[in-house]
Amino acid sequence: PILYNVALRVMPGEVVAIVGPSGAGKSTLVRTLVGAQRLDAGAIRFDNAEQRDWDPAQLAEQVGFMPQETTLFAGSIKDNISRFAHWSPGATEDVDAKAIDAARQAGVHDLILQLPDGYDTRLGPGGAGLSGGQSQRIALARAFYGDPAILVLDEPNAFLDAEGEAALMNAMKIARDRGAMVLIIAHRRSVLEMADHLLVLEAGRPKMYGPAQEVVARLSAPQGQEQAS
């Protein structure tokens, strides 16, 4: 098993940061939370109902996921942000408005307007046509599309400049203030300072979990600092 005895509860309006060394199981944990990877044992529950008992399409509308390796697809910027909603059965007429709202939350609206065709700018396979930082910000907007109740962000600031990171922090604050649950894998202090709770994973096991300030204080102790490094 990659993960052992990981147990946590996240409430609406809470930000939980997940940290740990490379190979600790952080990405595996968040992939299972969003259904991209199935559990062999244990359970994941949303509103006390097990993940497998939810209708996948209904649950997908409530989960915004930004994976560690940003993947965009051939299509327009709007298509990528809206998860190709225009092409889905039963598509509503508010896709454009929701895509713009998500881009504003992610702080990427002005950047998109500077592209040759704005939201209709076409991307090649793999999102070809954008820089790494631009792709990350589009992927962040995609995670915010539709104001999901649960946001799961895996290293969302890996390629962001100072402006992009400021937009990320503001987007997380907006999501938290509207009652979304936010789980984020990150190491930069600016992101960790925003967390309500901190989960430290090591070799697939929870080493520490609790209020962020308490966990940081324990990690800052001489022995904890050595282990954390």
Structure description:
Helix 7 links the parallel strand 7 (about 150-155) and strand 8. With about 230 residues, this protein is an alpha/beta fold. It is globular, with a radius of gyration of 18 Å. It starts with 14 loop residues before the first strand and ends with a helix. The model is unreliable at about 225-229 (pLDDT under 50). It has helices at about 25-35, 55-60, 75-80, 95-105, 110-115, 130-145, 160-175, 190, 210-220, 220-229, and strands at about 15-20, 45, 50, 65, 75, 120-125, 150-155, 180-185, 195-200, 205-210. Helix 4 packs across helix 6 and helix 6 (about 130-145) runs parallel beside helix 7. The strands form three sheets. The chain has a six-stranded mixed sheet with strand order 4-7-8-1-9-10, sandwiched between helices. Strands 2-3 form a two-stranded antiparallel ribbon.
Sequence-ordered SSE layout with sheet pairings:
Blueprint: E1 15-19, H1 26-33, E2 45-46, E3 49-50, H2 56-61, E4 63-66, E5 75-76, H3 77-81, H4 95-105, H5 109-113, E6 122-123, H6 132-144, E7 150-154, H7 162-177, E8 181-185, H8 189-192, E9 197-202, E10 205-211, H9 212-220, H10 222-228
Parallel strand pairs: 1-8, 1-9, 4-7, 7-8
Antiparallel strand pairs: 2-3, 5-6, 9-10
Helix pairs in contact: 4-6, 6-7
